[in-house]
Design brief:
- The chain is an alpha+beta fold and about 400 residues long.
- It has four domains: about 5-145, Roll (PH-domain like); about 150-220; about 230-280, EF-hand (Recoverin, domain 1); about 290-370, no CATH class.
- It has 13 helices and twelve strands.
- It has helices at about 20-25, 85-90, 125-140, 140-145, 150-160, 170-180, 180-195, 210-220, 225-235, 245-260, 275-285, 320-335, 355-365; strands spanning about 25-30, 40-45, 50-55, 60-65, 70-75, 100-105, 115-120, 170, 205, 290-295, 305, 345-350.
- Strands 4-3-2-1-7-6-5 form a seven-stranded antiparallel β-sheet.
- Helix 7 (about 180-195) crosses helix 8.
- The longest helix is centred in the middle third of the chain and has 15 residues, at about 125-140.
Length: about 400
């Protein structure tokens, strides 16, 4: 309801944005119909908009999953105490009515089984902000249809916020949040130990040392599927880089293992290396494994150009020589900004020998010492076809 408008008016298809004041927290008095009094609390929302945090004066925190919020109300639609004594307790500030300074949150697993909790503040502007923003987060389409990675981030956020009075994460809280029985508890403890994390019942975790990267490693140990790893290793064949598929292996897998042989080859063409690279670029989580692909074609001014051949993608406009240098210079400048891993450049070469020489010249000139143009001493490779000009 959010004041007077139905929730359909706040449905959004864009990333959740949490106002800074909600991240920092604001003071409220919490009350519900089962309580004869009000409790001073601080309300916060994490930067991703996953949870509403309700922290009392003893630093005890209750979490409310924002995706379970069905409605938020303020003004004449908000719930206020019927008992005059309770009204006096929860009233804050000297301006505005209690209804205008109250936020009623309706939450539950569905629209039938719902509960209500009420928060009173000292300004009607504050109440309206929280009423509107919480409802926007609850009905955000990207959050409602979140990716697996986002849901893992949400689980990590919940665990990191479940701290004791010293600000540390008790291992027993981690186990309790993920295990339903004794066998599950043993699996969780074993996964923590395998990840190099404290696993004893009385142990605790430092939130700063339990980053999302550490959580993912723990999650992989917890949900490891050895049979899937065996299948992947078989698909990788003789690849020396264990756990990695080459572009050609991806092509073979999609065409031979995944493709329905009944498909029409014209309407549904086979996957080629270019398409495989696009798939890798889109879905490979470790960008260090994504090869950079450049298509070189003969230019009209004896300078090679970068474009996609036989497609509707045009040539790079403007001064072609300058543009080509810009492409290689950009790669040279940004290649190792985010990772020290080698950058694999895949050249689809459609140039004549003269323009191929130009490409080689630019690579040597702009990449300089970064260019690996000879076998490494500790990895000489196979000695084959020494006279092969390629």
């Amino acid at each position: 309801m959010a004041g007077y408008r139905p929730a359909v008016h706040v449905v959004q298809l864009k990333p959740v944005v949490v106002p800074q004041c909600m991240q920092e927290g604001q003071k409220f008095i919490k009350w519900d119909e089962d309580s004869p009094t009000g409790v001073p609390v601080t309300l916060k929302v994490d930067p991703n908009g996953f949870y509403l945090y309700v922290m009392d004066q003893n630093k005890e925190v209750e979490l409310l999953d924002i995706m379970t919020i069905r409605d938020t109300r303020t003004g004449r639609y908000a719930r206020t105490p019927k008992d005059q004594r309770v009204r006096e307790i929860v009233t804050m500030g000297s301006t505005g009515t209690l209804e205008e300074k109250t936020v009623t949150v309706c939450y539950g697993p569905d629209v039938v089984n719902v509960n209500f909790v009420n928060f009173c503040c000292n300004k009607m502007e504050t109440a309206k902000l929280w009423t509107d923003e919480l409802l926007k987060m609850a009905y955000n389409l990207l959050a409602l249809h979140a990716s697996v990675t986002t849901l893992l981030q949400k689980a990590h956020t919940r665990i990191c916020r479940d701290v004791d009075r010293t600000g540390r994460i008790p291992v027993k809280h981690v186990v309790k949040s993920l295990a339903n029985n004794k066998e599950d508890r043993k699996r969780v403890e074993k996964a923590l130990e395998a990840s190099g994390l404290p696993s004893g019942k009385s142990d605790t975790l430092e939130p700063e040392m339990f980053t999302f990267k550490h959580f993912l490693a723990f999650y992989m140990h917890l949900t490891g599927r050895q049979e899937i790893e065996r299948i992947f290793d078989e698909l990788c064949g003789g690849n020396k880089r264990k756990g990695h598929m080459t572009v050609q292996q991806v092509v073979d897998f999609l065409n031979k293992e995944q493709r329905d042989p009944r498909l029409n080859e014209i309407l549904y063409p086979y996957v080629d290396p270019q398409k495989a690279r696009e798939i890798i670029a889109q879905y490979e989580p470790n960008k260090a494994n994504v090869p950079e692909s450049l298509d070189f074609w003969n230019g009209r001014t004896e300078e090679p150009i970068v474009c996609h051949g036989y497609t509707l993608v045009p040539e790079i406009p403007g001064q072609e020589t300058k543009r080509l240098r810009d492409v290689i210079e950009a790669i040279a400048e940004a290649a190792f900004k985010t990772s020290d891993w080698p950058v694999i450049l895949s050249f689809e070469n459609h140039c004549n020998p003269k323009q191929q020489a130009k490409i080689a010249q630019y690579c040597r000139e702009l990449f300089g010492d970064m260019l690996l143009d000879a076998p490494l001493e500790d990895h000489p490779g196979k000695d084959k076809q020494k006279d092969d000009p390629s």
